[in-house]
Design a protein that fits this description.
The complex is a heterotrimer of chains A (324), B (500) and C (339).
Chain A lengths: L1 H25 L6 H26 L7 H18 L5 H25 L4 H20 L4 E2 L5 H8 L1 E2 L2 E2 H19 L1 H11 L1 H6 L4 H26 L2 E2 L7 H11 L11 H17 L7 H35 L1
Helix pairs in contact in A: 1-12, 1-13, 2-7, 2-8, 2-10, 2-11, 2-12, 3-4, 3-5, 3-10, 4-5, 4-10, 6-10, 7-8, 8-10, 11-12
Chain B lengths: L5 E10 L2 E11 L4 E5 L6 H8 L7 E6 L2 E2 L5 H6 L2 E4 L11 H5 L6 E2 L2 E2 L1 H14 L15 H14 L4 E5 L7 H16 L3 E5 L3 H7 L2 E6 L2 E7 L4 H10 L17 E10 L3 E9 L3 E6 L5 H8 L7 E6 L2 E3 L4 H7 L1 E4 L3 H5 L6 H6 L3 H4 L7 H14 L16 H13 L5 E5 L7 H16 L3 E6 L2 H7 L2 E6 L2 E7 L5 H8 L9
Parallel strand pairs in B: 3-10, 3-11, 6-9, 9-10, 15-20, 15-21, 18-19, 19-20
Antiparallel strand pairs in B: 1-2, 1-4, 4-5, 7-8, 11-12, 13-14, 13-16, 16-17, 21-22
Chain C lengths: L1 H14 L18 E6 L6 H17 L2 E6 L6 H14 L3 E4 L8 H9 L3 E5 L10 E4 L3 H16 L2 E8 L5 H13 L7 E9 L4 H14 L3 E6 L2 H13 L7 E4 L3 H9 L5 E4 L2 H17 L9 E3 L5 E3 L5 E3 L4 E4 L3 H5 L3
Parallel strand pairs in C: 1-2, 1-3, 3-4, 4-5, 5-13, 6-7, 6-8, 8-9
Antiparallel strand pairs in C: 10-14, 11-12
Helix pairs in contact in C: 2-10, 3-4, 5-6, 7-8
Classes of the chains: A mainly alpha (324), B alpha/beta (500), C alpha/beta (339).
């Protein structure tokens, strides 16, 4: 499977390169370093949250409430910054992450102990958390003049030529890579998703794993909420509406099986970057905006088809070898 | 003899990179029950699919009722009077028994489906088969065995001239198997032909008239089923004889390791008492649903609501979860390899180290070297054939997957090994290998609980036999102290004389 | 501190698992007050919060009216239809709607009118037949032309101009943009051209990306017009992040409290907006007049709208409130405190 996944990742890499060439033919400046960094910066949030979604989908679940968690924790952090401008941004960041974690734990409790199927549970909390965002903000936005410079600089600041946001993305990616690949719990995440009964027989606790992955998602979505609001210097109630679908799309593009059990961090990062390139290229490519949305769908769908067809072919080869 | 109903000549079927069937032939007469015998991978299922039109042969001719025919699909074969009962029930769980039985050939009354008529037919059919099932029951509410019987009823409903049964008894209890025999005999008397595919020799000798043996996609031989044929058939199939099937070694049985006292779980089993000793193979025999698996699950901490005492290695223990059981040194190889055994998408390494991942991961971080060492040791011990330890389990053959599951449990250093139907649905050669393994484990001082529904296996391998019926232990026998008939009587609750 | 308490309170409610029902309970207190509803495009938008304040102000003055504020959580016609259905069931007296779609709401508003509810639209209108009166904050023509005038003042009547709109089917943005193209035909703008209309879908991230895209695609871009509140906010942030302040001028329709930062730092030196408080205020006066039968919505009807003076209903039930107001460095602080 590893071999096979490596191949899937390679396929996606080739698709990305192909799409990139098409874009660069139309807009040569697209490939300039400055623009590449801009895209990576823009995609960092998607990468972080998609990696949380990866862990969940590998267990066979899904989290549809991430957009709302981002909105709520972003709003909470921004309001804290607004009303306590002298508080260190580090504290604000931790509070934002903490709030996200709390919402993640709520999801985890409902799913692991309430025995509610993840898709139903998070569909519910999608509205609940969004509703609370309105309650918290009383419908008001927090915008640039109400935020401190330091808060707005949180994602924008530079270190070694990269923005802090990119660094956050890199750190999260490395940690998630280590977690999924080199920890006992990460192994158990794959085990539960791959064959729940078999995993239970060797003493893997489904509750524990579900608790871990939904809480982890809360942590990442909380971080993403802080980053989102500080980056756009606006905490609005509609923040990240529909973002959950982008994270799922990044996972599926990256070769994560929606049935659970397989998927890699590298694949998801590539999937997210693919979406990032696409959303950043569409405004630049001279094309009627009326075609853009359709084109985006066509390209994503096409990539998925190519990706899964090549995976099928790979699988067939394996099966033939097994029969020999 | 009469004109053959089915004659296959020089049939070959190639798949990319593999010859599934190579120049085989088979002749079937009306009023004949014909056993098609062979190991897994011998090409039996492929042949069934060719006869029923699911596959088209690469070469060769099919003569059906004297005509040279090729069926384009299963429906066409059905129309010509060929019915097939497949190994795995292919039913629609949300539909009723009647709807399932008449799926594809509804009875119509002026273009409208005549449900009343179909229900009547179904009721008659079920009655003929001695089945106490309401025609309007949803299939999902039936037991596995009942589903199989409905599947058989479905095949009979089309009034076929040729009935193919692909391992029809694997999910049936003894009583239902008896019913099935009755049905087969009725078919035979009515002049129908039956192609009977089975791994179980007792069934073949019970019901079949003739046999044909395939091996590795090739025709090996055929002949009448008679007492002297058994060794011949086995030799044809695998090139080894019967006494090699159950290589039970004499082992010195020592101290008790596991004592179970008054073990009960409401609705599943009651007052279970037994003692297991080091080096001993303790057989648990009974019909499907007798409560054997449930006892093992409770012992292993999967089902939690059992009462009673469990003494392990001299200490009174409570086993709350599988982890606790593993810690004590109990390993449980479950019944369903596919569902409960291996994790298909995971590599061999990750599968084998999963039960011991705690020990192999200091501070929760996995150690590649330690994992490799474990896999090297147990993978080699089990002689797993694979391109490497890092390939996914789903690239392995069924037998090798089974070995991965066993290796996984050996890695936990068990003192007690519980094996639930370890040879169900696997071929003769692998079966012999599993038996060999069980015997060698006992030789090393392991205590083994062998749960099986196959009486020859229980008789051939166990030092002691516990017989269960409806949640209770009805009899206990020493090796070679009892005949098969007595065991079956104990298992069906018909024990007249005093048991042990 | 109050906000912190609010955060903790809300969190603890989340953790104890209570479910928030999205909707508002009407305080059914004193009897015999007409229930007038201000149904806005979506909740959580500062502009509409100000509309609500205007409605409350008018209700206080009128005395016989209770003003209820409602809206879906996302700007969809479906969300509004659901709310109108429930309002019909609740037998409110009048609804003033800022519509997410000109036509999609007509069947349900017709149903409401049949049930005796007075229906009008404001800000973003419903087509004739789906309401009695449509209160236009300003005339589309004036708004569109004014946007071009504002950007021309900032760029010195020359250069490439890009537009960051909301969604591609937004009723009023499209009408305004049409008038922008009309205005720019005038000879004094011969050195100016509108190069592209991009759609940010009223989402911060997409609007931001579209604004960045415009600046990349046209390195010599002189100005951006964003006639939508989220769009102008995101465009301002994009210009700031790209370091194009002073090079790319920005104007649009923005809410003073949200844009204060960028107006004061010069990213967006001037922008326009009608006064949403006045919109809610005037709408509530018109609803009261409709309920009490002072007017029926026909051409020539006159409504005494308190401090807004006399409003005359024109052809097709159209009523015009006034001309957009320009905000700049000098007056922004004052208005930012209001809405």
């Amino acid at each position: 499977m590893k071999e096979l996944l490596r191949k899937r990742e390679f396929t996606l890499f080739v698709i990305i390169a192909f799409v990139l060439v098409l874009i660069v033919i139309r807009v040569p400046a697209f490939i300039e370093m400055e623009n590449v960094l801009r895209i990576v910066n823009d995609t960092s949030i998607l990468i972080m949250v998609s990696l949380g979604q990866l862990a969940i989908i590998v267990t066979g679940g899904i989290d549809l409430s991430v957009g709302s968690i981002i909105a709520f924790s972003g709003m909470a952090a921004s309001m804290l910054n607004q009303y306590h401008p002298d508080l260190s941004v580090f504290v604000v960041l931790l509070v934002g992450i903490g709030v996200g974690t709390g919402l993640g734990i709520f999801n985890a409790l409902v799913i692991a102990f309430g025995k509610v199927p993840p898709i139903i549970a998070t569909l519910g909390t999608l509205s609940v958390f969004r509703g609370f965002t309105f309650v918290l903000s009383k419908g008001q936005w927090v915008t640039a003049h109400e935020m401190t410079e330091k808060y707005m600089n949180l994602p924008h600041g530079h270190f070694l030529g990269l923005t802090n946001l990119i660094w956050f993305g890199i750190v999260v990616s490395l940690l998630m890579y280590g977690f999924m690949r080199y920890t006992r719990t990460g192994r158990e995440v794959y085990a539960i998703g791959g064959n729940k009964t078999a995993a239970l027989f060797v003493g893997v606790s489904e509750k524990k794993i579900q608790f871990v992955v939904y809480t982890l998602m809360g942590v990442l979505a909380g971080l993403a909420g802080v980053m989102w609001t500080s980056r756009f210097a606006a905490a609005v109630n509609e923040t990240a509406i529909g973002f959950e679908l982008q994270t799922v799309a990044a996972c599926v593009l990256g070769g994560v099986s929606i049935a659970g059990g397989s998927g890699t961090v590298v694949g998801v990062i590539l999937g997210a970057l693919f979406l990032g390139i696409l959303t950043n290229a569409l405004p630049v490519v001279k094309l009627s905006p009326f075609y853009q949305m359709g084109l985006q769908g066509v390209v994503v769908l096409g990539a998925m088809v190519v990706n899964s067809v090549s995976a099928k072919r790979e699988e067939k080869k394996l099966l033939e070898r097994r029969l020999d | 003899m009469s004109e053959p109903i089915l004659r296959l000549e020089k049939i070959s079927k190639y798949f990319p990179g593999i010859k599934a069937l190579d120049d085989v032939h088979l002749v079937l007469h009306p009023g004949e029950v014909h056993a098609l015998v062979g190991e897994n991978g011998a090409g039996k299922s492929t042949l069934v699919k060719i006869i029923t039109g699911v596959y088209q042969p690469t070469n060769g001719k099919i003569y059906y009722k004297g005509e040279d025919l090729h069926f384009a699909n299963a429906l066409e074969a059905q129309k010509h009077g060929i019915a097939a009962i497949h190994q795995e029930a292919s039913m629609f769980p949300e539909l009723t028994v009647t709807e399932n039985i008449f799926m594809g050939h509804h009875i119509k009354n002026k273009r409208r489906i005549d449900w009343k008529e179909m229900r009547k037919h179904t009721a008659a059919l079920l009655k003929k088969m001695d089945l106490d099932i309401n025609p309007v029951t949803l299939v999902k509410n039936l037991s596995t065995a009942e589903r199989h019987m409905v599947e058989i009823a479905k095949a009979l409903s089309i009034d076929a001239d040729l009935v193919i049964m692909d391992e029809p008894t694997s999910a049936l209890s003894l009583r239902e198997i008896d019913d099935l025999y009755k049905i087969i005999r009725q078919l035979k008397e009515a002049g129908k032909a039956v192609l009977f595919i089975s791994h179980k020799f007792d069934e073949i000798f019970e019901i079949c008239d003739k046999y044909t043996v395939f091996r590795d996609g090739k025709y090996i031989g055929e002949g009448p089923v008679e007492e002297s044929a058994l060794d011949k058939i086995i030799t044809m199939m695998v090139g080894r004889s019967l006494d090699q099937m159950f290589p039970k070694a004499e082992v010195k049985i020592t101290d008790p390791i596991l004592e179970v006292k008054n073990f009960s779980r409401t609705g599943y089993f009651k007052d279970i008492n037994f003692t297991l000793r080091k080096g001993e193979i303790l057989g648990f025999f009974g019909l499907v649903g007798a409560g054997r698996t449930e006892i093992m699950r409770a012992l292993f901490g999967i089902d939690k609501s059992a009462s009673g005492k469990v003494v392990f290695d001299g200490n009174l223990v409570t086993i709350h979860n599988p982890k606790a059981a593993m810690k004590l040194g109990i390993a449980y190889i479950p019944e369903d390899r596919h569902e409960q055994g291996a994790i298909q998408d995971m590599s061999i390494t990750h599968n084998i180290t999963l039960p011991v991942i705690d020990e192999l991961s200091p501070f929760g971080v996995t150690q590649k070297a330690a994992e490799q060492e474990t896999v090297q040791k147990y993978g080699t011990l089990m002689e797993i054939k694979a391109a490497g330890w890092d390939v996914a389990v789903n690239t392995l053959s069924g037998g090798n997957q089974q070995k991965v599951v066993i290796a996984k449990w050996l890695a936990t250093h068990p003192k007690v090994l519980i094996m639930d139907e370890p040879t169900k649905g696997i071929d003769v050669a692998t079966k012999a290998a599993v038996h060999q393994f069980v015997s060698s484990m006992a030789e090393k001082g392991l205590a083994v609980i062998l749960v099986s529904s196959e009486l020859p296996e229980i008789e051939g391998m166990s030092d002691r036999i516990m017989v269960m019926h409806e949640g209770r232990i009805t009899a206990e026998y020493e090796r070679n102290q009892v005949d098969s008939e007595t065991i079956i009587r104990a298992a069906t609750g018909n024990l007249k004389e005093q048991g042990a | 501190m109050k906000k912190i308490t609010a955060i903790i309170l809300v969190l603890s409610v989340v953790l104890t698992g209570m479910v928030f029902a999205n909707g508002q309970k009407d305080a059914s207190g004193e009897a015999k007050k007409y229930k007038t509803v201000l149904l806005v495009k979506s909740l959580g938008n500062g502009f509409f919060e100000a509309v609500r304040d205007g409605g409350l102000e008018a209700a206080k003055e009128l005395g016989d009216v209770e003003s209820i504020y409602m809206g879906p959580s996302a700007s969809t016609a479906e969300g509004q239809i659901e709310i109108i259905e429930s309002l019909i069931a609740q037998h409110v007296d009048a609804i003033a709607i800022s519509a997410n779609d000109r036509d999609a709401l007509i069947p349900v508003t017709k149903k409401a009118m049949k049930a005796g509810i007075k229906v009008m639209s404001f800000d973003s209108g419903i087509n004739v037949g789906g309401r009695l009166v449509d209160l236009v904050p300003s005339v589309e023509e004036l708004i569109g032309r004014q946007q071009v005038q504002l950007i021309a003042e900032l760029t010195g009547n020359k250069g490439k101009i890009g537009i960051v709109s909301s969604t591609s089917q937004a009723t009023n943005q499209n009408a305004w943009i049409k008038w922008m193209y009309e205005e720019i035909k005038k000879p004094e703008y011969k050195d100016m051209e509108i190069v592209e209309v991009a759609y940010g879908d009223d989402a911060a991230d997409k609007s931001y990306r579209e604004a960045v895209g415009l600046m990349q695609k046209y390195p010599d871009l002189a100005g951006i017009i964003s006639p939508t509140t989220i769009g102008v906010l995101a465009s301002a942030k994009a210009i700031e992040d790209e370091g194009k302040q002073g090079k790319v001028q920005l104007t649009g329709l923005g809410l003073p409290s949200e844009m204060q930062h960028y107006i004061e730092d010069g990213t967006c030196r001037q922008m326009a907006l009608w006064n949403p408080i006045d919109l809610g205020y005037t709408s509530t006066y018109i609803m009261e007049a409709l309920i009490t039968g002072k007017i029926s919505g026909k051409e020539g009807d006159k409504v005494d709208a308190g401090r807004m003076g006399m409003i005359t209903i024109g052809k097709d039930g159209l009523a015009v409130m006034g001309t957009p107001f320009v905000f700049n460095k000098d007056n922004i602080a004052k208005f930012a405190a209001m809405f």
